[in-house]
Amino acid sequence: MEVTTRTHVPKVGLMMVGLGGNNATTLAGIILANKYGFTWHTKTGIQKADFLGSISQIGTFPVGQDEEGKEIFVPIRNMIPLMDPLDLEFDGWDISHLNLADAMSRAGVFEWELQEQLRPLMEPIKPRPAAFFQEFVAANQAERADNLLTGSRSQLVQQLRSDIRDFKAKKNLNKVIVLWVGNTECYVDIIPGLNDSWGNLNEALVANAPEISPSTLYALAAIQENCAYINGSPQNTLVPGLVELAANHRVPVCGDDLKTGQTKLKSMLVEYLVGAGLRPESIVSYNHLGNNDGKNLSAPHTFRSKEITKRGVADDMIGMNPELFPPGAQGPDHLIVIKYVPYVGDSKRAMDEYISSIAMGGKNTLVIHNTCEDSLLAAPIMLDLVIFLELFQRMSFKVKGQEVELDMGRILGYWLKAPITSLTNSLFRQRCCVENLIRAALSLPPSSHLYLDVKPTPIDHLGDGVGVKGSFDQVAVNEYKSYGRMNGDVTSNGNCGKGNIGNM
Description:
Blueprint: E1 2-6, E2 12-17, H1 22-35, E3 39-42, E4 45-48, H2 55-58, E5 60-65, E6 71-75, E7 89-93, H3 100-107, H4 112-122, H5 153-170, E8 175-180, H6 198-206, H7 214-224, E9 228-231, H8 240-249, E10 253-255, H9 262-275, E11 279-289, H10 292-296, H11 300-318, E12 333-340, E13 347-357, E14 363-373, H12 374-393, E15 395-399, E16 402-404, H13 408-411, H14 427-441, H15 474-481, E17 489-493
Parallel strand pairs: 2-7, 2-8, 8-9, 9-10, 11-12
Antiparallel strand pairs: 1-15, 1-17, 3-4, 5-6, 11-13, 13-14, 15-16
């Protein structure tokens, strides 16, 4: 296998649909607070800006063992050239006209003192007018909709494309990524002759077919401007016609829905239960929240989209073990409830009960109460999706001389509830996938977790600035040590990490 990674990190811009929403204003605030080193008072002391929750900024991967046989973990951001979040430019669209400072205050996610520091930086940022059709969201969203584009669906796509080009030119960007973090739309049907192929979808667009959603228009605009598109909400934006267009343009698209709190926990717990040979019989997930996401999800047709993505992670895990659930057998009772409670704001309450059958007719019950600040969990995930998607765009793979296309729907599944893939939606395997792709770029062997007792070959250090002793394949070590002196494309060749790395 040959892996080529372009080490020059381009200047990247992020356009968010829903720029004035809780998630987008929180991400913008986190980036700016870190960029300017803000601190603020809380009732427990001084808090400083951080990137907690971001794998790209906080996460580590194992790279070998030290001379005593202990594993060495290295920050991911030190292993391979990643985009610096402090260099990220952002812009976007929103159905509300509020500038980002006022939108941040409306969201109520940050402490007041931090909001006051951020206000001068966020107040000048105003969302661009948005494409909006009321029937795709809850009726209660009409009160926010005062910043709208007009025209037919095909005209709206052209206006969105013009916005992307304008942002790219004004900020002198090399690359733009479009991320939908707007309202959850209703689930759309795959209709033969309408959206089942690009040809049909294009004809429907020209005919201004009412079945085409706003999120579809943003995805179309992004793809036609050669910009990657991420669907961070539950609706099934990426219909077959869109996926076909993206493949034709070789533009990565991925979705659906950010995997943040309750569902991420569910994916781990159900995988644990099924993997341990226990049979889940009942899964009941209840949550209430008071932000605009909860308000929009109070409508049955938008809730259906969320229910589908939340339910899917358990269905995948259950399909892993036909010993527990033979083909055709009924899975566990699975109920999902979401209620809108304005008082709790962005601080979502999630309560789950898992009942499983254990040996000899016994039952095991897990009851979990999770209070989580929704947008503070979501924003680092949004950042990671952008950073790793951008990295993987700079990587190419060849197997036996034949180029292999990276499927972003699969490899970014760690951060998404319902990744577009037929593979099992396993959180642990999804993280391992990201780890092994980065190891491959460094000519390191994939993590096998064999735990064989092999005496390590000591080395002096791992890479510039790491300052530890370690051991694994000596060739791979030499390749890893070359990081930090790269200024061109890097190619790693060979089998199981044996190869070379250097400037091209």
